[in-house]
Amino acid sequence: MGFDVEKFVCSVSEDRTCALCHHVLDNPVQSPCGHVFCSSCILPWVVQHGCCPFRCQGLNTGDLTNVLALRDVILNMKVVCEYEPNGCSEQPKLRDYIAHIKVCGQRLVPCTNRGCGELLRSVEELGADKNNPCLCKPRVPCGGGCGATLKEVDNGHMCVEYLKARVHEQEEHVRCLEGELLRLRERLSARELELVSRIKAMRKRLQIQGIKLVQQARNMENVKAYTKTVPTECESKVNHTACDAILCVAMRGYPWLSVAMRAPMSSMHRFNAV
């Protein structure tokens, strides 16, 4: 947005105002169709709509050109100081306006006295305040014993009203502290519940892990016991087979033995094997 027309000393012609905001042009740019706008006004428009505000033609940001000559003319126009109501009569150029405001003798500055809070009109008055008496400087404590620090010319001070105001301030402060304490307690309670929940969850996980470890240990013991019994059974089977073979060979050497006689011998062999 451009500059307020009312800030300028002389009247502003229409060709120096923005076609969008109707203020005095700030960093003017021109479209191919001849319209002039503030750069801060037209750029968002072009990005959003892609055309001239007057619907003349399509428009891109690259189509806009700076109007440097017009910008220099506007920067050389004189403006009214914002501290004119305080007594400033200077009329700086627009290009020098910011620098003037920083050093204007009528600008408002806070008093440096602790607890004062009043605004002084000029740097000179502020400097005088450091060495000479002024209306804003605190002077003496109240003679009534209320504890207030009064200015020399403060004749309207009332101790009762001052004390009431102080009591009200302290009550407000206490209420704020109580509210803050309540919020802290709520936060601590919520934190405590969260920690208890975490501890319970951790304890449950540890119990599950312990059960798994015990089960794994039992499985390992079963595996070890099984591996010890397997070789013994194999050896027993091998021994039984060898005995059967020897007995058969021996019996073949005595063909005269009847089947009835062979059966008991075979049974004895099985019994001995067991």
TrEMBL record:
InterPro entries: Znf_RING, Znf_RING/FYVE/PHD, Znf_RING_CS
Keywords: Coiled coil, Metal-binding, Zinc, Zinc-finger
An individual GO BP term: regulation of canonical NF-kappaB signal transduction
Protein name: RING-type domain-containing protein
Stretches assigned to coiled coil: 167-194
MF (Gene Ontology): zinc ion binding
PANTHER family documented for this protein: RECEPTOR-ASSOCIATED FACTOR, PUTATIVE-RELATED, TNF RECEPTOR ASSOCIATED FACTOR
Record SUPFAM superfamilies: RING/U-box (SSF57850), TRAF domain-like (SSF49599)
RING-type domain boundaries: 18-53
Highest taxon listed in the record's lineage: Eukaryota
